[in-house]
Amino acid sequence: MHSLNNYILIAIVGVITFFLGFFISMLFRKKKSKTFEDSFSISPIPDEKEEHRAPSFSLLLNQLLAIYRNLLICEGVVYLRLKDSNFEPVAASAGTEFNNILIPDTEGLYGILKSEEKEIIADVVQPQALKYLKNCTEPYSILFYPILRRGEVIGMIAGHRAISNPFKEKDVLAIKRAARFLDELEIFASREQKLEFLRLRWERMENGIHEMLKQNDPTDMAGETVRTLSEILPLKMGFIVIQSSLYDYASLITHGFPPPEMETFEPNSWSYYLFTHQEESLYLSKEVGIDTRMPILTVKEKFPENKIVYLQKLVSGNNILGVAGAIGTPSEPFTEENKSTAYHFLKEASALLELSLLNISLQQLAVKDGLTSLFNRRYFTDRFHQEFSRAERTTEPLSLLMIDIDHFKKINDTYGHPIGDVVLKEIASRIQLSVREMDIVSRYGGEEFCAILPSCKLNDAFDIGERIRTSVSSKPILSGNTPLEATVSVGISSFPEVAKSEKTLLSSADSSLYEAKKSGRNRVVIAKK
């Protein structure tokens, strides 16, 4: 018996050594980034054949219980864990079947073990008291040994033998060592599980950031963000609303449901509340949503009644960019660990979203006129060439309007350049409102504007020109309390009705503008065919 105990102890030491080796390898498994750029790179995920995983805790537990069975020379050993004031069988040695039941920690021998926190040996125990054993029809001799952690019972090892060979005090010493090791193993497994959770969390966040960096458009980046959010949280539906006045950008991206018809946050919604208040995030249960009668996103939403909701503000520095939302159900709650992961991921994602918004803003500045916010001459030149090439290829008409403010030098000389800037901005706004959504309006230089009208015939272009002229002349421009009268002259040409080439289309429109000026101003003139 003494020799057998030594072999078993050697086996236990071997298992401990294996776990320590695995634990150390896990700690040093990931390499540190060498440079700032490396921190944005993702190493390829190793092939499953190369991945070294520890055996599952349940498998090791069953193997250990088999060792304990041999150590005690008994018919079977069962491990019962204490959970919510009940002992629950969770594992057994090979050949021993157990029932999935809960045994109150105040019942019979189980209650004595819990209250006295020491082992129990009983020579004869009837089958009804061993309800955790499946198909138990005869009495057994039993040895119950508590597993203690910080002075409290967290479970027990239960061994049973035939009553002809009852347990003795000498068996207690062996099982005492076994119980201590089992507790240490469970602690280790819990920590290893935590490490695995952290590894998966980092991997998902890293992959999500990697996919975002592949995108250039903020809406596409937000789509990758909400997709990664669905991997972090067990959500059924998700959304991201980007609403930035700083970058003049608005977008709605949904996951798991079609996007509703909304251009901005709806007042009296939880998303709007978070967007306009100090909180960084909100967690809403079913009761909160129902008691306030406030929708999450829009009054037309069709989220489940028994929903749980996690909302987080998208913030980069001092800039609020929007709100991300995750909709789940109580059957799959959002754990604190998962919410923490989502929080840190969305913080990083917000910074990348702002970089994308800033990039778009800089691109727009490169093609926009700083005063009027219309496209500049450089953009007009490139776009005009593109539209004319398309018109030639498709045989679609293309019209061009040249617009000039009448007597603008007089306005500057009389009222000063600041007032002249007010006039330029207001007339630019009226021109933009007078054309179609598909038309391209640019500031051509000084007080001159031009408008490219794709798929627009000459007569239709004349109607648009008249609409612009009337819009400017029919209403004075206010500068403070001073009303200023202003008019514009408009010259029009069209392909292929008037001009047959890109160069002649531009020159004929300019010539017709000159004719409008020459013939009295405040009028629209069509180029001659």
Q: Which descriptors would you attach to this protein?
A:
5-stranded antiparallel sheet, Beta-Lactamase, 529 residues, 6-stranded antiparallel sheet, 3 domains, Alpha-Beta Plaits, alpha+beta
Describe this structure in words.
With 529 residues, the chain is α+β, with helices and mostly antiparallel strands. It folds into three domains: 2-17 and 51-196, GAF domain (Beta-Lactamase), CATH 3.30.450; 215-365, 2-Layer Sandwich (Beta-Lactamase); 377-526, 2-Layer Sandwich (Alpha-Beta Plaits), CATH 3.30.70. The chain has helices spanning 2-27, 57-72, 108-116, 169-213, 218-232, 270-276, 286-292, 336-367, 377-394, 408-415, 417-434, 458-473, 502-518; strands spanning 76-83, 86-92, 103-104, 120-125, 140-149, 152-161, 237-244, 249-255, 281-284, 308-316, 319-328, 398-405, 440-445, 448-454, 477-479, 482-484, 488-495, 524-526. Strands 3-2-1-6-5-4 form a six-stranded antiparallel sheet, sandwiched between helices. The chain has a five-stranded antiparallel sheet with strand order 8-7-11-10-9, with helices on both faces. Strands 13-14-12-17-18 form a five-stranded mixed sheet, with helices on both faces. Strand 1 and strand 2 (86-92) form a beta hairpin. Helix 11 (417-434) crosses helix 12. The longest helix is centred in the middle third of the chain and has 45 residues, at 169-213. The N and C termini lie far apart (116 Å).
